[in-house]
Design brief:
Shape: globular
Strand order of the largest sheet: 1-2-3-4-5-6-7-8-11-12
Radius of gyration: 16 Å
Number of strands: 12
Mean pLDDT: 88
Helix content: under 10%
C-alpha cells in the first residue's frame, strides 16, 4: 500500500446523547509512524479544512477555515486547546476517557523488516469531556472510519 490514499471517511459524533453521521471524501497519508487524515467539511456557506493526526496514542484535530480550532486527545489526560470563529474565540480543554485505534492490516516498513506500519482501513474512537473555563460544556463520543475509496468505475 502506498503512503497516501484517497479515502471515504465516516464520522459519527454523539454529543450529549445526540447522534450525527457525516460521510465525506478525504485523503489518508503517512509520514514515518504518524498517520494523517485530511478532509473538508462544508455547511451552508462555510467551509472548514480538517486534519486528524495520530501518533503513538496521541490524536490531534486541527480545523482551519470559517472555524479555527486545535484539540489534542490522550487517554486519561486533560489537554488544552483553542477555538475561534467570527462569533467567538476561547481557550478550551479536552479530558479524554478513551482513545482507541484499529488498523486493517500491517505492512513491512523497510529493509530490516522489524517495524510494521498500520494500514487502511483505519478506525479511531475517542470519548471526551469538553471544558471551557474549567466547566464541562459537553460530553462527546466520536467514531471515525477511513477506508480506501474505490478506484476506477
Amino acid at each position: 500500500m502506498n503512503d497516501k490514499a484517497a479515502v471515504i471517511i465516516t464520522l459519527e459524533s454523539v454529543i450529549d446523547g445526540e447522534k450525527q453521521i457525516s460521510v465525506m471524501d478525504g485523503e489518508w497519508y503517512r509520514k514515518g509512524g504518524t498517520f494523517f487524515l485530511r478532509y473538508e467539511e462544508t455547511e451552508a456557506d462555510s467551509a472548514v479544512r480538517t486534519v486528524v493526526r495520530w501518533r503513538d496514542g496521541e490524536l490531534s484535530v486541527t480545523r482551519r477555515g470559517d472555524v479555527e480550532s486545535q484539540q489534542t486527545f490522550v487517554a486519561g489526560v486533560r489537554r488544552s486547546g483553542e477555538y475561534a470563529s467570527r462569533h467567538a474565540s476561547f481557550a478550551l480543554e479536552t479530558e479524554t476517557s478513551l482513545l482507541w485505534a484499529q488498523f486493517g492490516g500491517l505492512m513491512d516498513a523497510g529493509q530490516d523488516g522489524e517495524r510494521l506500519l498500520p494500514n487502511l482501513p483505519m478506525l479511531l474512537e475517542w470519548h471526551y469531556k469538553l471544558l471551557v473555563d474549567g466547566g464541562q460544556i459537553g460530553d462527546f463520543v466520536i467514531r471515525l472510519r477511513a477506508e480506501a475509496a474505490a478506484s476506477g468505475g
